[in-house]
């Protein structure tokens, strides 16, 4: 097996185990057993459990980014791009248990990389939403006085909805609720 494949397999297996048991209850021994690798193989790629968890979270972050960009690219106008962005964002975060755990749980804050990942994600997300809104203004689809404020407001609403949807297992009702939210939001910024 190539080195890249081994590292990817370790990250994949670690992601499954971290999502099932959480960061604190997962051991490197468990990951090594599940990956059918020697513990030394894990330490060849990752210095410790924290670095392995960081690799898992960063991999999930890349997955989220790819999914969002793909959803935007396949849309034909700013309204559709924004709607797809919101739906895909919530669906993908729900699937990415470790990334979501890193974003929401304060008990992981002691890990130095968590705050960096949160800040990186927040910065990238604000840039992406601002570009969607700017595109809508430039195409005469949206009328927005303050794009920065509107982008921040939208992200605040979406982050506020994460806990009710994901913690309370309301995800199955997500799509209808999200579509209604999107409709209300877009009507609020639509050029009349």
Characterise the protein shown here.
This protein has 2 domains: 1-46, Homeodomain-like (Arc Repressor Mutant, subunit A, Orthogonal Bundle), CATH 1.10.10.60; 54-189, Tetracycline Repressor, domain 2. It has 9 helices and no strands. α1 packs across α2 (28-35), α1 (3-25) packs across α4 (49-73) and α5 packs antiparallel against α9. The longest helix is centred in the middle third of the chain and has 27 residues, at 112-138. It is mainly alpha-helical and 192 residues long. The model has no long low-confidence stretch (mean pLDDT 86). The chain is elongated and about 65 Å long.
The end-to-end distance, rounded to whole angstroms, is 59 Å
Write down the oligomeric state. Answer: single chain
Name of the CATH homologous superfamily of the largest domain? Tetracycline Repressor, domain 2
- Strand percentage: under 5%
Please give the share of residues in helix.
Answer: over 70%
Which architecture of the largest domain would the CATH scheme give at its second level? Orthogonal Bundle
> What form results from the Cα inertia axes?
elongated
CATH class assignment of the largest domain:
Mainly Alpha
Integer tally of domains: 2
